[in-house]
Structure formats: structure tokens, C-alpha cells
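Two proteins were folded this term; both appear here.
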Amino acid sequence: MNIKVAPQKNGDTKIEMSFDYKSLDALLQEATSGINAIAQAAAGDSSGDLEAMQLITEEAMKQSLEEAGFRDVKVKSTGPCRIEASFTGKFENAFADDNSSRFTISSSSMAQTTSQMGEEFSSMADLLMIPSLTGEDVSAEEYTALLSIIYGATFARELADSKVTFTLVSPKGKQKKTTVSLLELLVLDEDLVIECR
């Protein structure tokens, strides 16, 4: 997952992000296959062709971001289970002055941002029972074990191996990249501060 954060001096922040959700999509396809088969049998459809349910659609994500009050929203699918999005809005955890910018990631900022991002993101966060959002104090190992029990070892392992790259852009165009484990963010116990001068 890549997230580019460009705070402006006027208080706005432009966000550009791209992410691949292949593992989560496969998990939901497997979980709903039985439900889809039952629905087909009830409808008298014996073709065996299950219609794939797309986890995130361009239209739904764009609508969710716009309803959350973001501006200049652009969303496009760049392949199977891969989405790119950009939008502008106010984020209390992003700051810029004439020479520098700062972006702080904390449990409270993650909760605020998730709720601000609309129903699509909140639903995904609910599915993952993210400790940083629920306030539960669990270790990365405990959370991975929980995900493994609920969603399977493969999903838990892929999530544990995932990385998030944040690129912070200063008002003068300088960039600072920071890569962290997705798991570290999901069980965040201390603030992560990224600064660019």
C-alpha cells in the first residue's frame, strides 16, 4: 500500500493512495461462495457460474469519499483487486508551514480518519477488528493469531508481511518516504511522526 500525503499551508491535505486487496477479496469470495450457491439453487440456476462480488468498486469508493466531504475525488481500478484514489480534505494530523510538513499517525487519528473516510472504509476496518481502532491492547503476535483463527493462516501471514509506504511532501516539494509494517499500524501503541523539511 502506498499513501502520499501533501499537507498545504491553507489547512487542506491532498492524499494519493494505491492498494492491492487481493487477499481480502479472495477471503470474502470463499466465505460467500456457499451463500451464493444457496441463492442460485433457490433461484433455480444450476449453471454453477457464481457471479463474483467485487469488494471495492470505483463508484462505491468515490461516492463514499464524496459523501464524507472530500473534494477533487478521483478513483480508478488499475487491475484486478487494485485501486488508486486521490482526494483533498482536512486532516487534523497533517500540518504544513512555509518550509516543512508533518504527519502524525496515532490510534485516535486512525479512528478519526477511518470514520471520516466513509462507509466503505469503516466496513473494511470492522471486518479486520483493528486493535488501533477498537482500543484493545494486543501484541502483533496476538492479533495475527486472532486473524489466523478467524480468516485463516494464509490471510494472517499475508497481512503480517504487508508494508505501507508513506510519502510526505513538503510545501517546497521535498519528499520523505517512510515504510512501516501494516501489522505495526494495526496494533499501533505509540505515535508515528513523519516530518519533511
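Next, the second protein.
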Amino acid sequence: MRSASTSVPIASPATHAPAAMPASTRSRPTDPATRAAAARPTPGGATAPDADTSRWDAVLRRDASRDGTFVYAVRTTGVYCRPSCASRPARRENVRFFDAPEAAVAAGFRACRRCRPDAPPLAERHRALVLDACAALERSESGIALDALAAAAGLTPRHFHRVFKATVGVSPKAYFAALRTRRAHAALQATPRVTDAIYDAGFGSSSRFYGEAGHALGMSPSAFRAGGAGQRIRWTVEPCALGTVLVAATERGVCAIEFGDAPQALAERLRARFPQATLVDGNPAFREWVGRVLAFVERPREALDLPLDVRGTAFQRLVWEALRTIPRGRTASYAEVARAIGHPEAARAVAAACASNTVAVAIPCHRVVRGDGSPSGYRWGAARKVELLRREREAGDDGDA
């Protein structure tokens, strides 16, 4: 039995061996005092040769992650740049490094017009543009065309679309669709007529709303507004290896898999979620789904591939899809999931999306852990999370779930 689960990047089929150590680094002083002295800045804000080695490597790689940590200047042009500057690299003997743009200016160099090292980093400028676009979309009732958003940001439509998706994790169109769905959630609860809620949420027609709402709400808009009125939800509570499990499904698919200790508490939670729905016993197809859930919990050897009927925002659905790519027996940190969906600063939002998951094991949020590998919280108890991971490790690596 393996003693711990292995954390792996999501959807990264290839791994790479560490790069060989550059020859220029092999003869560095080993004495700590000597190395510390070599790394001290030299007068005028330039850096000592030992520190320059890694900086030159960053320039050759055009490493954007080093932007803001130093700038380099070229004696022959009189210009200083960011490490990620796309201009043709200068000869090493013509390059000087500075800790900050101010030091380069004081030494007589001017800012590159291409990479603009005297302005905020490109990622920050893009983030500000995207935040402005998000605010404009939130103020809009009917949406804003991609061309108009791009023009306001000063970018081409294609470039803006790429920047927006890299920052937010979804396209501008999907972002506005999620906004409309959120408005629809609120309007269906507050507005007496579904038709009024449709237009209050910003949908231009009822047909478009009904076309999108089923995926976002998990049932028809009228049924959602009425707490599941008119819906038949098949359900059961069964003993399992983790205590007790509730499984429930609409006609579209499984809408709940929840663990607990008391069957009555699980049943009450389902009724609170769908107070107006008709809860009925399962048919043969539903019982087959329940059997697959119980078998997976007992010995998770095969993939648990069930039709699902879950509600969520565009961001939540993006996270849930990423979770389903984590191989069985492996784990990923919240930060790794955030990077995998193209939103590296959204680790906390990823954690919130995991916490809102209502279909345990089918959407395997138990495979997401803290950066140090500790299990962190779990909607159905941290002890169940640890036990699920243990069972998956014991089941072996002969398949993914």
C-alpha cells in the first residue's frame, strides 16, 4: 500500500526532465561567505556577476515570471528592457543588469518602447483591462459585442478574447451568460412571473433563456423557481463504507450524492433543497446508478461515469470539469487546479467551487488538497476524504476516474 497520494499537474500527460545545469554555474564558489559577497549589488544599482548568471538565463528564455524583479540594459542601444522583451537578444558583453528601472535611468539608459519596462507588468495591465470589461458586462442588460470590448481595451478582438479567457477562465460570451444566469436565479425567486424574470435577467427572448437555463439550473426555470415543483426526483439512502450515502436523480441525471451519518438528516437536506418536488422510489435504471456509486465507494477500481444534472456558474462548471481529469489515486492542489483552468490567481474560488459540489465522487472534489499535501476540508467530513483517497490508492493505478 502506498503511504501517500501523489500530487500531479492536471491534464499534463508529458513530464520533462530537469534541464542540465549551465556550464557557467558549475564553478561557483561553494563557501557561503564568498557566494554571499558575490551576490551583493555593485555601485549604481547593477548586480554582481554571480547574480547576473541566472538573470541572463531568464533573458534568453524571455521569462515573464521574472518581470518586475530586474531589468537589463544594452550599452550599444542605450535602452533597458524587461526580461520577457521580445526584441532580439543583445550580445552578453553589452548587457548590464539593474534591480529596478530607476537604477537603469540613473545610469543613463532609456525605457524600451516595445516592452515598456517603466509601466506596470503586462499581466497587470491585461488584468486591469479585463476587470474594466467585466464591469462593463455587469452593467450591461443585453451584453456587449466582442469587437466593442476589444476596442475599449485597445486590442484586436482575437487578442482581447485570448487575454480575457486567460485571465477569467472563460470567454466574454460565457462570462455574460453566467451573469445572466445569476440574475435569473435571483429574478426567479423574487419575480411572480417567469416571463418577467426572463427579461429582467437580460435575455432577449424566452427561447434563448429556456435553451440555456436547463443546463444552468438543472431543471426547467419554473420548476427551479418553485423549489422543484412538478419534478419527480428518485432517491434512496443506503449504508456504505463511509457511513450512509444519499443518491438522488431527476429525469436528466444524478443531482445529489451526499454522505452522512444519519439517514433522516440526509433525507431532510434533500427535501430542503427541493421542497416542492415529488420524491419517489427508484426505477431499475436508477437502482443501477446507485449500485455503481456503492461499488465505487467500496472499491474504486473503475471510472464512475454517470449522467449528471447539476447546477453551477460557468466558473464552477469549469472547475468541476477539471476535477474529473485528475486520475484516480492522485491529487492536485487548489493552485494547480486554478492554473489548469487558466486562472492561476483563483485558488480560493476553486476551493469555493469544490465546496459547492453536490455530487460526491462523481465530481471528485476529494482529490483536491492543500499545497503542502494535507487534505484540507471536505463538505462531508475530512475523515471521509482521507478514507476515499486511501481506498483509491489501494485500488491501484489500473484506470482513471
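The chain is about 45% helix and 10% strand. The radius of gyration is 27 Å. These notes refer to the second protein only.
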